[in-house]
Amino acid sequence: MGTVLAENWPQWLGPARNSVWKEEGVVKKFPKGGPKIAWRVPVQWGYGGPAVADGKVYVMDYVIAKGKVVNNPGKAIPLKGKERTLCFDAGTGKKLWEHAAEVDYELSYPGGPRATPTVTDGKVYALGGMGNLTCLDAANGKVTWSKDLPKTYKADVPIWGHSGHPLVHGDTVYCLAGGEGSVVVALDKETGAEKWKAITANEPGYAPPTLIRHAGVEQLLIWTPKNLHVLNPATGAEYWSKSIQPNYNMSIMAPQKSGNKLYVGGIGYKGALMKLSDDKPGAEILWRGTPKTGVYCATSTPVILGDVIYGNDIRTSSLMAVDLEDGKRLWETRIPTLGDNKEGRVNNGTVFLVYHEGNKLFYLFNESGDLLIAELNPRGYKEIGRAHILEPTNEAYGREVVWSMPAFALRSAFVRNDKELVRVDLAE
Predict the structure, then answer these.
(1) What is the model's pLDDT at position 375?
(2) Which residues fall within 8 angstroms of residue 177, CB to CB, at 6 or more apart?
(3) What distance separates the 2 farthest-apart alpha carbons in the chain?
(4) For the whole model, what pTM was predicted?
(5) For position 3, what pLDDT does the model report?
(6) From CA 410, how far away is CA 50, in angstroms rounded?
(7) At a CB cut-off of 8 Å and minimum separation 6, what does 182 contact?
(8) Predicted local confidence at residue 178, as pLDDT
(9) How many CB atoms are closer than 10 A to CB 86?
């Protein structure tokens, strides 16, 4: 990535892709009556969250011309319409530009693009639900280059769409494509020209490319539905791999590193904690998941603090704290996800987690459209405040939901559903 200011949130999960917010002057509790709404602007269908960079907000959506959003986990639904990348003034909410392209969708859960734009060095890298990757000028939205990944690499579109948020590092864009020998492709960020491609798998999966540095070496992590592959980001050569096979090909969460430990987990209790080798790229598995250990994430990626993993479990719909060393569950609650008012099994109850480093608090956004401030520690969950920001406009498992990761920048939260993009003032 290029140099970013602390007040920017230029990509999924923030400047370092670690769900950590560092701005000073942020409220530790909501004022009486709730936080001030700075502005609301109309947008349309989309799961992908906003990015904030250099005083602008970028988000993708889908304008339906023909068809209807029907959510069937096992069936792709056709839609016709326009896929857009939108740019707004962060101060006023005024729309500055849009880029639109006619794109026919055929996806399960077809309600819009999945990925958050990645913004760096004056460019916006936008990945559409059907795999169209476009590089736009951040100032005016003009196309620098574009690439239809499924067409270029003769790949099928995953049933739940292209979801791996583009990763820009140095002069390279890393993106999941699919196809023979091209699950991951490295492209020149200025021209889109291919530098290398790597990995063959039954499907590319949904986990975004993730970069770590360990043993003095940069390592690119690509989690397919069969294996966690660790590559040389300069060449695509494989350093090492481990078998981690979630059910339904749902490799989704970005692997999370803490010190010399690396955790990944998905549906079906398919997860593992690995100890990274300190002298050269490599890893050994310390423990694998079981029905009573670990946390198995989907729509939300966990945060590791110290020796604890805080994450949103896909099957129990709970926010959990898990001991990093042995996978033991320390506590779990559905208060932040579902308000603890749902009985029995509820799939995918969702809350998105961001940790504020200075305040030592979590700022959470849940599927009901609520923004929460909470203290999470190994002993339990303590909610400090809750504010209802926007209405859920999509559906999952018979309930109304909004599934979109927020951005935190300019002492504000930026959140969206399928009708609005909202800036919430969180300045002290």
Answers:
(1) 98
(2) 131, 149, 150, 152, 153, 155, 183, 184, 185, 197, 204
(3) 57
(4) 0.97
(5) 39
(6) 13
(7) 153, 155, 197, 198, 199
(8) 98
(9) 25
**CA pair distance 114, 117, nearest whole angstrom:** 10
| Confidence at residue 259, expressed as pLDDT on a 0 to 100 scale | 97
Residues 6+ positions from 269 with CB-CB distance below 8 Å: 289, 290, 291, 294, 296
AA identity, residue 193: A
Nearest to 60 by CA among 85, 23, 94, 31: 85
Q: What integer pLDDT is reported at residue 1 of this predicted model?
A: 43
CA 202 to chain centre: 22
| C-alpha of 427 from chain center | 25
Compute mean pLDDT per 10 residues along the chain, 428 residues long, and list them: 63 97 97 97 98 98 98 97 98 98 98 98 98 98 98 98 98 98 98 98 97 98 98 98 97 98 97 98 98 96 97 96 98 92 84 98 98 98 98 95 98 98 98
Cα distance between residue 166 and residue 299, in whole Å: 17
334: left (phi over 0), alpha (psi -120 to 50) or beta: alpha
Question: How many residues would you count in the chain?
Answer: 428
Q: What is the pLDDT of residue 78?
A: 98
